[in-house]
């Protein structure tokens, strides 16, 4: 990956709005906050502040991040910042992409935050602007009485319990590509199952450190899934369908990665001719 302006890394981002990013950071710290020291949490906060121009992506040099952290409660050292990055990467909170100069050697890193898989819930309706009411507000006693009646009606009504396991494919979050859901739903109709399969796709994609957008690899992902279904129908999958799918996909992505590398090498030789 070549160094450059933050805009050239926009294809790596997983957030469409700042609200999504902030909500993910909130849930991430709620889940993993106790894994970081006080100094590391300061470093984490600084990194998120530098990740809003291109939401969820930061390409600032680490020396600049450390310098910015000095204004926060005494600041943190470079080693503290690096420990925070290592922990965040191990926990799957972010990925670190290295950039290389044309003449060789590493340049700045690109830090890409990931969505908090399986815990974010999309808003189903937009908040509507309410007009100021001119109707007098009922007295508190009347409000409490009406609320009590409503609560009794709800308690008496037999409500069907809704759980994550009962949601079908129409509830799949928007971060899962529609084409992937369409391919998978004839075999796995539940939203939770589809998301678990897509989580495996993301793990494989991040592991291979592709610079290309994941959408460009959807034909390969679909091919890996269909091959796994075929093997399953042949009773050749001894353990887990998900594990077999993941292994098949990794194998195909390795081949694709080599093709990209060979193409870049050939293009580089052509430029030097």
Characterise the protein shown here.
- This protein has nine helices and three strands, in the order ααβααββααααα.
- With 273 residues, it is mainly α.
- The protein has two domains: 6-113, Winged helix-like DNA-binding domain superfamily/Winged helix DNA-binding domain (Arc Repressor Mutant, subunit A); 166-272, no CATH class.
- It has a three-stranded antiparallel β-sheet, covered by helices on one side.
- Residues 124-143 are annotated as: Disordered.
Topology:
Layout: H1 18-32, H2 38-49, E1 57-58, H3 62-69, H4 78-90, E2 94-100, E3 106-113, H5 140-156, H6 178-184, H7 191-208, H8 218-233, H9 241-272
Antiparallel strand pairs: 1-3, 2-3
Task: List the keywords.
273 residues; mainly alpha; Arc Repressor Mutant, subunit A; 2 domains; 3-stranded antiparallel β-sheet; 9 helices; 51% helix
Radius of gyration: 24 Å
| Structural category | mainly alpha
How far is it from the N-terminal to the C-terminal residue, by CA?
A: 22 Å
Give the H and E element order.
HHEHHEEHHHHH
How many β-strand runs? 3
Question: From the coordinates shown, what is the CATH architecture of the largest domain?
Answer: Orthogonal Bundle
Low-confidence stretches: 118-131
Number of domains: 2
* Tally of individual helices: 9
The largest sheet has its strands arranged as: 1-3-2
Summarize the amount of helix as a percent range.
40-55%
Largest sheet geometry: 3 strands, antiparallel
Q: What is the strand content?
A: 5-15%
Look at the structure and give the mean pLDDT.
80
The CATH superfamily of the largest domain appears as Winged helix-like DNA-binding domain superfamily/Winged helix DNA-binding domain
CATH class of the largest domain: Mainly Alpha
**How is the CATH topology of the largest domain named?**
Arc Repressor Mutant, subunit A
Overall 3D form: globular
């Amino acid at each position: 990956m070549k160094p450059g302006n933050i805009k050239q890394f926009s294809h790596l981002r997983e957030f469409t709005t700042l609200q999504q990013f902030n909500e993910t950071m909130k849930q991430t710290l709620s889940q993993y906050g106790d894994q970081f020291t006080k100094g590391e949490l300061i470093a984490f906060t600084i990194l998120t502040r530098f990740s809003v121009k291109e939401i969820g992506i930061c390409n600032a040099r680490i020396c600049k991040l450390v310098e910015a952290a000095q204004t926060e409660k005494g600041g943190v050292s470079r080693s503290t910042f690096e420990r925070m990055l290592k922990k965040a990467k191990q926990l799957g909170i972010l990925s670190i992409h290295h950039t290389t100069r044309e003449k060789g050697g590493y340049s700045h890193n690109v830090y890409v935050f990931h969505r908090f898989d399986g815990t974010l819930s999309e808003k189903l309706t937009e908040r509507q602007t309410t007009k100021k009411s001119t109707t007098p507000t009922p007295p508190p006693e009347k409000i409490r009485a009406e609320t009590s009646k409503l609560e009794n009606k709800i308690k008496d009504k037999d409500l069907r319990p809704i759980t994550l396991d009962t949601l079908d494919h129409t509830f799949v979050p928007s971060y899962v590509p529609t084409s992937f859901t369409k391919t998978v739903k004839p075999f796995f109709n539940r939203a939770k199952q589809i998301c678990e399969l897509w989580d495996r796709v993301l793990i494989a994609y991040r592991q291979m450190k592709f610079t290309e957008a994941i959408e460009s690899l959807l034909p390969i992902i679909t091919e890996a899934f269909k091959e796994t279904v075929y093997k399953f129908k042949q009773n050749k999958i001894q353990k887990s369908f998900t594990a077999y799918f993941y292994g098949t996909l990794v194998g195909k992505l390795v081949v694709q990665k080599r093709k990209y590398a060979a193409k870049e090498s050939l293009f580089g030789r052509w430029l030097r001719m």
